[in-house]
Amino acid sequence: xxxxxxxxxxxxxxxxxxxxxxxxxxxxxxxxxxxxxxxxxxxxxxxxxxxxxxxxxxxxxxxxxxxxxxxxxxxxxxxxxxxxxxxxxxxxxxxxxxxxxxxxxxxxxxxxxxxxxxxxxxxxxxxxxxxxxxxxxxxxxxxxxxxxxxxxxxxxxxxxxxxxxxxxxxxxxxxxxxxxxxxxxxxxxxxxxxxxxxxxxxxxxxxxxxxxxxxxxxxxxxxxxxxxxxxxxxxxxxxxxxxxxxxxxxxxxxxxxxxxxxxxxxxxxxxxxxxxxxxxxxxxxxxxxxxxxxxxxxxxxxxxxxxxxxxxxxxxxxxxxxxxxxxxxxxxxxxxx
Length: 337
Ligand code: TRP
Prior knowledge:
Layout: E1 11-16, H1 24-34, E2 42-47, H2 49-52, H3 59-75, E3 84-87, H4 93-102, H5 107-111, H6 114-122, H7 129-144, E4 149-151, H8 157-174, E5 182-184, H9 219-227, H10 245-258, H11 262-269, H12 274-301, H13 303-332
Helix pairs in contact: 3-12, 4-7, 7-8, 9-12, 10-12
């Protein structure tokens, strides 16, 4: 696989839908781990606005989410000079490659996607073709940049597997065209569960307000939510997700915020009661969120500045995408333009 000149660093790419609200799970479990990756990888992070239209959302809300998420990414420490930050719709090649890959993806393969089954059950009145072809657009996102590594949550593994299948199928038929990507699980990644339902991951879009801590929640609200988090009757502070999912989740949150190990946390708080422990968790979360929120307010206020970041990101992304599209057109026997 040729990857052009002077491009030794492997490519990382991930995307987020501009819907719902970013949570401490998104930060502690994903974003925070992305911050140092630029030293080893050529990192691309994008807002997948084209994906987001597969489910109805008011345009004004989508626009707000886009500004909010990109500003939050930067406020969390993703440096636009060291990472390519962009919006999917600014690079038209995503839609174009998605069409091409549609012709290399089997109907039956898409029917088996569990996210499609879930979403079509949840939105019975709008099971559109975009929802069905969603994973193909995602494959296009990834293959367009020759991404070697894709940091995603468990819920996206099946889509990544399909991306690999489609890339391999195309390569087999037309010669080496695409890099076959792999998922990336960060060495340390907290898996943050819901506060009310600690058996399931904290979600940015499906949870009841009290189940998640949002990055823009004010301190009082954070404290209230943590104080009301589900625990158990046994009273001990031990990391044991099977029998003590609530307490273990709060320990994960505390550990991710302070860097303290579970052993240290157990030693510091066992026997002190859940009230004291929860206060410590709340204080730690607030200490992490405060600087992010301050930084966010400044960045979000400058929409022109944000658009400048996104324009620069799209220009860099387009350059790489253009090279891939040329190879794809050639592989397919399209007349060079
Ligand atoms: N489908 C992903 C999600 O819902 C978002 C996404 C779209 C993505 N394109 C991507 C993630 C490319 C990684 C790479 O979480």
